[in-house]
């Protein structure tokens, strides 16, 4: 399994033989959640480790379990190989050589040892996590928050402390787009940032004016009037603009 014990690194647990960190809150993902590592490959890793003992290092892992270069690269990108002595960059460096050497004699893997490589910045880690597993411990809006603050764009959590009726701007990732048949042409967007989730109401007129941006952009800056009724806080959109993020996101649209 993948273990996120520190909040910033995913590791293979129960494969390297290393002891887990002290008990703490953690997120564990099945190995099959990693790109290019299907259920069959994941089970082969677990079975080999259980039957013949812990893997010594990455080369030992590749010798004992048939993994494609793509699978090794994905595990490295996810940070799942750190307990085997390979951080993300080193694992990616070694993937090609180890994948090509899987059918050779043990210990023969020319070019697998990486030189000293620079560490990844936070945004690079988040991008790698999303690519490899679809999940990141850091929300994409964190990386553009300084510019949003400078522009007066509020966090979602701030809106719940504001009085209704005022005009505000908020930014976030679009997680859902919905247009119920009984809503008289109104489209609802779910907008999420690092602090929470907000429902955005788009009238037919607003959707006609900004629909292309609202429909196609993964993240948005929405300006409008704050509404609150029956304990629910909504933003009635008046202007919608694209928000550029460095981390790819997806949404559930009209389902």
Summary tags:
three-stranded antiparallel sheet, elongated, disordered N terminus, alpha+beta, five-stranded mixed β-barrel, 255 residues
How is this structure best described in words?
With 255 residues, the protein is α+β, with helices and mostly antiparallel strands. The chain has helices spanning 39-52, 58-64, 69-77, 88-100, 122-133, 145-150, 156-159, 204-216; strands spanning 2-4, 10-12, 27-29, 167-178, 187-193, 196-202, 219-229, 232-242, 252-253. The strands form 2 sheets. It has a 5-stranded mixed beta barrel with strand order 4-5-6-8-7. A 3-stranded antiparallel beta sheet has the order 2-1-3, with no helix packed on it. Helix 3 packs antiparallel against helix 4 (88-100). The chain starts with a strand and ends with a strand.
Chart the SSEs and their pairings.
Layout: E1 2-4, E2 10-12, E3 27-29, H1 39-52, H2 58-64, H3 69-77, H4 88-100, H5 122-133, H6 145-150, H7 156-159, E4 167-178, E5 187-193, E6 196-202, H8 204-216, E7 219-229, E8 232-242, E9 252-253
Parallel strand pairs: 4-9, 6-8
Antiparallel strand pairs: 1-2, 1-3, 4-5, 4-7, 5-6, 7-8
